[in-house]
Amino acid sequence: MIEVSIISVDLAKQVFQFHAATARGEVVFRKKLSRKQLLAFMHSHAGCIVAMEDGAPAIVARSCG
């Protein structure tokens, strides 16, 4: 299984777009999840970097785990 190093999240009101990549920049997956699915998804990917975009030009990067 390919290890996810970073997950990019585009935040919205109802649906979140996720893009995951390895440390080498290879795309692992792209997903669209609802608010209800968000917490379980993030628990299953603990220990990676999460970069969030809130719709404005602001980007926040945080290490989770």
Written overview of the protein:
This is IS110 family transposase. It comes from Paenirhodobacter populi. The chain is 14% helix and 46% strand. With 65 residues, the chain is mostly beta strands. The chain has one domain. The radius of gyration is 11 Å and the shape is globular. The two termini are 19 Å apart.
Rounded mean pLDDT is 80
Radius of gyration: 11 Å
Number of helices: 1
Q: Characterize the biggest β-sheet.
A: 5 strands, mixed
Protein name: IS110 family transposase
Brief write-up:
This protein is mainly β and 65 residues long. Helix content is 14%, strand content 46%.
Defining key terms:
65 residues; five-stranded mixed sheet; mainly beta; 1 helix; 46% strand; IS110 family transposase
List the helices and strands and how they pair.
Layout: E1 6-10, E2 15-21, E3 27-34, H1 35-43, E4 49-53, E5 59-63
Parallel strand pairs: 1-4
Antiparallel strand pairs: 1-2, 2-3, 4-5
